[in-house]
Amino acid sequence: MKNNRKVITRKIIYLLLWLMIVPALQAQESLPLEKAVKIALKNNFDISIANNSSTISKVNNTPGNAGMLPTVALIGSGNYSLNNRYQKNTDGTSANSNSVSSTSVTAGAELTWTLFNGGKMFVTKSKLNEIQALGEIQYRDKVLQTLFNVIGAYYDVVRQNQQLKSINEALSYNKERVKISQAGYNAGSLIKTDLLQAKIDLNVAMENKINQQFIIIQARKTLNQLLCIPKDSDLLVTDSIQLNYSPNRNELIQKLNASNTSILSFQKQIDIANLTVKEFKTGYLPIVDFNAGYYFSQSTNTSASVSQNRNVGPQVGGTLVIPLFSAGENKRKITVAKLESENAALDLQNIKLQVNILLENTLTDFENQERLLEIETENNELAQENIKISLDRLRLGQSTSLEVHIAQEDYVQSNTRLINFRYNLKLSETKLKQLVSGL
User: Quick one: 400 and 265 in the same domain?
Assistant: First the structure.
């Protein structure tokens, strides 16, 4: 009867624990990689800043900003004066007037339009087009860099979770080893040092678990920071690192120069620098402006031959400016602009070299990580089998605690290498895709 009560009580406790755990698991929101990327694209501060910078270059790219459109303004002015006037004429007569007042009022609508400035307005518009294109490339570059960081941080959380799982597995082996050693010591088949070593290794495994849990918390905070969500958000990432990428070396090399954002950015800077040279060269050419307006003016004098004068009507005119001497400013600006264009060309050659070397190194790293992963996968299976055999031998009294300790260490280290090889392979894959704008 007592045994039945114990069984019923145990079942009730298990049921209550289950009812407490299940809602907690359901409350933890799932976060697949695709969702993490969407959150980053929406929230990340660096992406938002880059998007604003790109928008600014787009807003600035207008015909009006290039000087191609006229300006229209309403103008007006008014003056009032009160003077004491003295006049002496050539015939010897003179006139003296006190408190002479005069009033003048001018108003009108005026249009000014630059018809020709050496083609500068068209060069400037082309330059604004290139600046806008550069802004879009720089925005895409920031998006790709952020995605690389997010993917790396996401799979780092996965990696640390897998490492914790490996530690828990080692912990279970340690507990079993302590249990076997305790039984062997009680039976007199094992010496006490074997039992003590087993307990020491168990404590070390428990310490490793605590440290690993802290590492996971840090990795989650790094991911949350990139996603710009509360640092304490506990989102459930996937439990594995997907590896199904097979890079084509020749295809990647071909795509690199055509799609890499760093290369495209420096190419645009060369185009902008060359257009800047053309802009300054137009400073040697004449400028023709067209002016038109409708004006009203009126002046009133209390002491003059004409007491009131009024003009109303349209006016049309133009101005011509021919530069003759600018103290060498145009020449200086053109020289500086040419040097900047040369620097941009050198920067492009340099970045091409760097990016191509980076691609080659990343491809080599990817291939190496693949080979290492293949070897370690087999090695991990062997290490797992070895630890199981060692425990069985210890249980039968055919092995020593040192042998089991070595087998455990080999298995734990193999798990760590295996997890890191998978993570490094995913990072190499992500870097290759980033280099060719394939994320």
Answer: yes
How far apart CA 319 and CA 310 sit, in angstroms, is 26
**CATH number where 422 lies:** 1.20.1600.10
| 125: amino acid identity, one letter | K
Tally of residues, the chain: 439
Four-point Cα dihedral 354, 357, 359, 360, nearest 10: 180
The three-class DSSP label of residue 105 is strand
Give per-residue pLDDT as tens, 2-18: 455 554 555 454 444 44
One-letter amino acid of 108:
G
Same domain, 109 and 137: no
Q: Which two three-digit tokens encode residue 395?
A: 């249980």
DSSP code for 238? -
Owner of token pair 């600035």: 60
Domain-located, residue 18: no
Report the predicted TM-score, pTM, of the whole model to 2 decimal places.
Answer: 0.81
Measured CA to CA, the distance from residue 205 to residue 175 in angstroms comes to 10
Q: Which amino acid is at 433?
A: K
Give yes or no: residues 313 and 336 share one domain: no
In three-state secondary structure terms, 167 is helix
